[in-house]
């Protein structure tokens, strides 16, 4: 049974901390947890605050008695005291709502994500960590009894539960910290970075971004009209083609019930949301396909043997899928995520992705496309502007440095457009961002995919570039930058031999390898690269698994470092702006940071943001500047 003290007055709270803090004016640590009547501060209250100081647990039954809260505020905002919290953004957000800004956070969930180094998982619960580090089973069934609680008369079971939630935090903290320190000094630096980032992400979530609802509805209605028009055209064509096909081959009118039963759906009203139905229709029309995935449809459109009528069906279906996706992802249901302040408050996840890149949910803002119509719906509040700052060709510049390709580094230093350069060499035509742009786009698609170890076959499956053309672009790219080619070829094998990939800043990703020696893995890949048809089914499966690991490892060394850069930039910008300027970071998407800034401060804040981002990038990639482009406007579509 865990012992604890219920703190009911200012004197009891004061006595608890005085007796149990080892060093109130120097380095120390406390565990912290809270119980609330709701998930969201907008519609609930803080019920209990639990503290672990030394070996003692104190539970404060929260009320807004000012002197007591001021004392708790002083403790939680003390920069010398580490606050050990599990999933700290939750506590940070709630305590911020009552005027407390927690300082010096250690989040045990984020620490575990760092320790797992890219293993499957992500959201590690307190129960999992208490079991792993303390071999104790927590009973979380009591949690739901706090929902809608009035804050009066807590049961013994509720208080016992609250005490358990904080009891093991310091043990977990020390065990995790020791493991991180033992792994490497670089991983310790990653931990330090992530702990500084946690409260900043909480602040970004609290700030939110304003949505112009009327403009958003117009965007949805426009896409919905296009979807319906495309759907009607497609169904009309399908009806005509199916009638012609079946009347000709079966010899009687399709409108008889027998043919309808044979098709298992009505040919006059096929469900376009059903890929299986479209697959059956294409097969009936003569295009034998085993799915209607994007790569299959692209191949159909490129095949000279496919008749034009089928290509027309495929073209319309792809348009329908595009509009349908826009309507489902950015439809009226999206407005359910709006807060009472008319702003979206996405939840950020700082170390759930294997590369360490930030992700978000409720809603997912990382997947918002660069569609100017959609982005124009995200706006600044009155009297403010949006500042958009993003790194220019960040990943291309990272791979230039990581690979050590002197020619690529030199070209980027001299502001040579690499994609246009590759396209000009390949097509023997003048190419730039405004002239023969489609050729530059082809080169860019192949170059970016190639940088992550993708083969020409893989590129063709996800683009509209013919195989021969993709191969030739790759060949041209490697001829121009031979050191890069050598790096891609050798680094993948290095990753297999080590069993992990690591960014130059020290963020690792561990891979689970097949049970075989490195020599066996290398031999299998070399055989498969020459002719994978020679491999047995089992060896072919292993070959694809190894190639995936090599690609994922290369991806981590590039995108993982890009993630390190943007996180450090967020920390630096926040520290420079906080309490000094009427400007807030309101969103970050991959290599881009979005701020809302008071009109008269836009020029000064833009310079701070640009200088900060470029300075941080230069610290991690000192051989080559990564320039930052800054745009200012009323909405996010600004370029």
Strand order of the largest sheet: 1-4-3-2-5-6
Q: Percent of residues in helical segments?
A: 40-55%
Largest sheet: 6 strands, mixed
Q: Looking at the structure, what is the overall shape?
A: globular
Span of the ends, CA to CA: 61 Å
Q: What class do helices, strands and sheet pairing give?
A: alpha+beta
In what range is the share of β-strand residues? 5-15%
The number of distinct helices, counting runs of at least 4 residues, comes to: 24
Total beta-strand segments: 17
Uncertain residue ranges: 251-263
Rg for CA atoms: 29 Å
Descriptive key words:
639 residues; alpha+beta; globular
Task: Give a description of the structure.
The chain is of the alpha+beta class and 639 residues long. Helices cover 54% and strands 13% of the residues. It is built from 24 helices and 17 strands. The strands form 5 sheets. Strands 1-4-3-2-5-6 form a 6-stranded mixed sheet, with helices on both faces. The chain has a 4-stranded antiparallel sheet with strand order 15-16-12-17. A hairpin with a 2-residue loop joins strand 15 (583-589) and strand 16. 37% of the residues are buried. Residues 251-263 have low confidence and may be disordered.
How are the secondary structure elements laid out?
Blueprint: E1 5-7, H1 10-20, E2 28-36, E3 46-53, E4 56-61, H2 66-76, E5 81-85, H3 88-96, E6 105-107, H4 108-116, H5 126-134, H6 156-167, H7 169-183, H8 185-207, E7 209-211, H9 213-250, H10 257-263, H11 275-285, H12 294-302, H13 308-329, E8 343-344, E9 347-349, E10 359-361, H14 372-375, E11 378-379, E12 384-391, H15 394-403, H16 406-413, H17 418-427, H18 437-451, H19 456-461, H20 467-480, H21 482-498, E13 500-502, E14 508-510, H22 518-531, H23 537-577, E15 583-589, E16 592-598, H24 602-620, E17 628-633
Parallel strand pairs: 1-4, 2-5, 5-6
Antiparallel strand pairs: 2-3, 3-4, 7-8, 7-11, 9-10, 12-16, 12-17, 13-14, 15-16
């Amino acid at each position: 049974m865990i012992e604890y003290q219920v703190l009911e007055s200012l004197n009891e709270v004061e006595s608890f901390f005085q007796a149990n803090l080892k060093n109130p004016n120097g380095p120390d640590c406390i565990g912290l947890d809270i119980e609330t009547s709701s998930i969201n501060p907008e519609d609930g209250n803080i019920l209990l605050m639990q503290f672990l100081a030394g070996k003692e647990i104190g539970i404060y039954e929260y009320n807004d008695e000012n002197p007591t809260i001021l004392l708790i505020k002083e403790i939680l905002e003390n920069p010398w005291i580490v606050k050990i919290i599990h999933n700290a953004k939750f506590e940070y957000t709630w305590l911020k709502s009552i005027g407390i800004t927690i300082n010096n956070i250690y989040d045990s969930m984020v620490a575990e994500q760092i320790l797992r180094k890219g293993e499957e998982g992500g959201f590690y619960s307190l129960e999992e960590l208490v079991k792993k580090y303390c071999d104790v089973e927590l009973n979380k069934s009591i949690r739901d009894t706090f929902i809608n609680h009035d804050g009066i008369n807590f049961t013994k079971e509720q208080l016992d539960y609250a005490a358990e939630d904080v009891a093991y935090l310091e043990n977990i903290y020390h065990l995790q910290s020791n493991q991180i320190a033992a792994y490497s000094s670089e991983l310790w630096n990653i931990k330090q970075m992530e702990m500084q980032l946690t409260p900043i992400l909480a602040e970004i979530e609290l700030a939110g971004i304003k949505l112009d609802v009327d403009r958003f509805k117009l965007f949805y209605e426009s896409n919905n009209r296009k979807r319906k028009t495309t759907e009607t055209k497609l169904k009309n064509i399908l009806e005509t083609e199916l009638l012609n096909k079946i009347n000709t081959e079966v010899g009687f009118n399709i409108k008889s019930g027998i043919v309808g039963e044979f098709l298992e759906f009505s040919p006059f009203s096929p469900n376009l949301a059903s890929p299986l139905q479209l697959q059956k229709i294409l097969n009936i029309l003569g295009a034998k396909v085993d799915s209607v995935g994007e790569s299959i449809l692209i191949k159909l459109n490129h095949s000279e043997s496919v008749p034009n009528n089928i290509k027309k069906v495929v073209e319309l279906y792809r348009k329908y899928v595009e509009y349908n996706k826009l309507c489902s992802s950015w439809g009226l249901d999206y407005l359910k995520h709006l807060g009472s302040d008319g702003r979206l408050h996405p939840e950020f996840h700082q170390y759930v992705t294997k590369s360490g890149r930030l992700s978000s949910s409720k809603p997912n803002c990382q997947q918002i496309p660069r569609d100017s119509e959609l982005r124009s719906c995200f706006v600044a509040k009155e009297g403010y502007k949006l500042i958009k700052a993003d790194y220019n060709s960040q990943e291309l510049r990272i791979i230039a440095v990581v690979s050590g390709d002197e020619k690529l580094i030199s070209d980027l230093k001299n502001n040579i457009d690499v994609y246009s350069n590759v396209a000009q060499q390949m097509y023997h035509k003048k190419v730039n961002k405004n002239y023969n742009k489609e050729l530059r786009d082809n080169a860019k698609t192949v170059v970016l995919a190639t940088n992550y170890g993708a083969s020409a076959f893989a590129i063709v499956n996800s683009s509209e570039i013919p195989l021969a053309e993709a191969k030739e672009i790759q060949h041209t790219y490697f001829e121009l930058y031979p050191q890069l080619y050598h790096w891609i070829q050798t680094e993948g094998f290095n990753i297999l031999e080590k069993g992990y990939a690591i960014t130059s800043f020290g963020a690792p990703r561990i891979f689970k390898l097949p049970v075989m020696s490195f020599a066996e893995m290398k031999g299998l890949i070399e055989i498969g690269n020459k002719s994978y048809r020679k491999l047995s089914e089992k060896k072919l499966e292993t070959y694809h698994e190894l190639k995936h690991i090599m690609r994922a490892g290369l991806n981590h060394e590039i995108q993982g470092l890009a993630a390190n850069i943007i996180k450090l930039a967020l920390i630096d910008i926040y520290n420079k702006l906080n309490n000094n300027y009427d400007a807030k970071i309101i969103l970050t998407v991959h290599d881009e940071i979005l701020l809302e800034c008071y009109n008269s401060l836009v020029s000064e804040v833009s310079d701070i943001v640009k200088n900060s981002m470029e300075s941080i990038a230069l610290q991690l990639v000192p051989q080559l500047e990564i320039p930052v482009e800054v745009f200012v406007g009323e909405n996010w579509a600004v370029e």
